[in-house]
Amino acid sequence: MHKILSYLLLCAGILIILFALNSMYNVFINGQTVREIVHFADMTIQTQVGPMNVPMEAANTLANMGLFAVLMTFVMAVGGKIASLGVQLLKNERIYDALVRLNKENLTKENFKQL
After folding, report:
1. What is the pTM of this model?
2. Quick check: helix, strand or coil at residue 43?
3. Closest Cα partner for 61 from 92, 38, 81, 84?
4. Which of 5, 37, 79, 115 has the fewest CB atoms within 10 Å, counting from its CB?
């Protein structure tokens, strides 16, 4: 039972990491758009010549892509922790199996030294 859970956690962690990497690749390499989380309104600045309109479209794109990168980095870290938990469970299962096998064989100290 623990082995099945361990492998499921390991696979789930790897899939989460691959999902985050694929999403980042699609956004930063293929140019897929990111959902708009932050929206800055255009600014109007009063100058000596008259009012000047400053578009904030580039700042919106930069802020949204930055937040997306931070979010996907967090998702990759979570996937890494989940996969790490699966690996730790597998290690514990192998240690438990080895101890059970040693106990069943009733090895003496001399036999244990030969291993």
Report:
1. 0.74
2. strand
3. 38
4. 115
